[in-house]
């Protein structure tokens, strides 16, 4: 009996060891297959880039930055948070008083550079400061990922492969233009680059040279960052010296179908419906058109928004974002 039990244990152990061996071998084979597939994918990128006129040396330097799919990028892409913030929660999170204080200090140091650049590209300092502050904390946080590695990973992954492959090819074009070295092209896990957080396609359309050195460096040149943000807004229809909006009070509740950024009326018409400035006074101009935005619904904070509010939304199509940019920029520059 003991001998038989010993035999069974021995056989079980051998079988278990064999299973572990097979599992390990299978995992190793899968890893090798994945590596071979990624290498084949990178070869196809190389072929496409060379066919589009990208210099072989640039392609080699760039693709050397990505050897295997970046697991951190894939994790962040696949597990994005699904919770929804109210406007009040978003406002408290992105607009603490410390951000206004830092913005005022930074603006005092940068105004002599920013103001002429903003004006040259058809924008105002308020909007530039607001976007710079929300996108990168006034340049403090511009990303830690290699843009090439992130975009190649996402292009290979398949969830939105066509979009990210297109952005990858545009990133290689930017490198070919010589504005930044491959290793210095850093950004978010999704490929948004530098202090302005431009995707490569937006960079090619809107990035601008603010310091006159012939390059568009949105990573380390503040003048180029300001020029690029201002150029983006200027080309999107920014109206210089016009407000984005203002906080208001409602002397009576408005129906839900009366609010929203697309439901415009003249300020005279809004006043007839009980809308007033935040201090309770009447608007100074009755002919200007605006819309009432009340993100958290009746009885909560409300704003009158104008044309420039919708221009900010071209940068990021979110009412919360546009309100955040407007309030931050106005709180800094108008202080």
Set out the fold topology.
Blueprint: H1 2-51, H2 56-63, H3 71-78, H4 87-94, H5 97-120, H6 125-136, E1 145-146, H7 147-157, H8 161-177, E2 186-187, H9 200-206, H10 222-235, E3 245-250, E4 264-266, H11 267-272, E5 275-277, E6 289-293, E7 302-305, H12 307-315, H13 319-333
Antiparallel strand pairs: 1-2, 3-5, 3-7, 4-6, 6-7
Q: Report the structural category.
A: alpha+beta
What can be said about the biggest beta sheet? 5 strands, antiparallel
What is the gyration radius calculated from CA atoms?
27 Å
- Number of contiguous helices: 13
The helix content is 55-70%
H/E topology pattern: HHHHHHEHHEHHEEHEEEHH
Per DSSP E runs of 2 or more residues, the count of β-strands stands at 7
How are the strands of the biggest sheet laid out side by side? 4-6-7-3-5
Instruction: Please state the average pLDDT score.
Output: 90
Low-confidence stretches: 1-22, 25-32
Question: What distance lies between the first and last C-alpha atoms, to the nearest angstrom?
Answer: 90 Å
Shape: elongated
Strand content: 5-15%
